[in-house]
Write a structure and sequence with these properties.
Layout: H1 2-16, H2 18-26, H3 28-34, H4 37-57, H5 72-80, H6 86-103, H7 109-121, H8 132-138, E1 148-156, E2 159-166, H9 167-172
Antiparallel strand pairs: 1-2
Helix pairs in contact: 1-2, 1-4, 1-6, 5-6, 5-8, 6-7
Length: about 170
């Protein structure tokens, strides 16, 4: 459960806070092994502040707030088709979103590797074979339009971008 929740913290770091990203990179032992109270308090506080700031900017979930869904389109499809916990599925979804970001030339290989390095540091399994079942679930995602979806991609750490991608294009990745 702890690692599943930590996946959401990683999401906040990737979409919104380079400092939090660096804290996660530099403090694995204190976070995983020791669960050092002051550090854990700082991480939870930062996570709450990030989510609050995003919701405050878009309280009616019209567009900007969609960045909170980074990793969730594929992540929810993975979660539904597996017995994985939410966070473990979302990590896989974030990996896919980063790969798509590179293929769309929004994200450099170097930054994707840095993000992937964080997943690996915390020993998350990011391997996944996407099937038609996953795409069928994504086609019912709340962020979908008729034949496309607002998909959260990454330009850099703390620089998300919401991109409308057709389901056909998404399947091509």
């Amino acid at each position: 459960e702890f690692k599943s929740g930590l996946a959401e913290v990683i999401k906040y770091a990737v979409i919104s806070d380079k400092e939090l990203f660096d804290i996660l990179i530099n403090n694995k032992e204190k976070i995983i092994d020791v669960r050092e109270p002051e550090l854990m308090h700082e991480i939870v506080k930062k996570s709450i502040q990030i989510k609050h700031k995003i919701i405050e900017k878009d309280p009616k979930d019209n567009f900007y707030r969609h960045i909170l869904n980074f990793g969730h389109s594929f992540g929810h499809a993975i979660e539904i088709n597996s017995n994985l916990k939410h966070g473990m599925s979302i990590i896989k979804g974030m990996k896919i979103a980063c790969d798509i970001s590179v293929k769309k030339e929004l994200l450099s290989d170097a930054v994707r590797n840095k993000i992937q390095g964080l997943f690996e540091l915390y020993e998350y399994d990011t391997d996944i074979k996407i099937t038609d079942k996953h795409f069928d679930i994504i086609k019912n995602d709340k962020k979908k339009d008729k034949e496309s979806i607002n998909f959260v991609l990454i330009k850099n750490i703390a620089k998300p971008e919401i991109v409308n991608i057709s389901f056909d294009e998404l399947k091509g990745f």
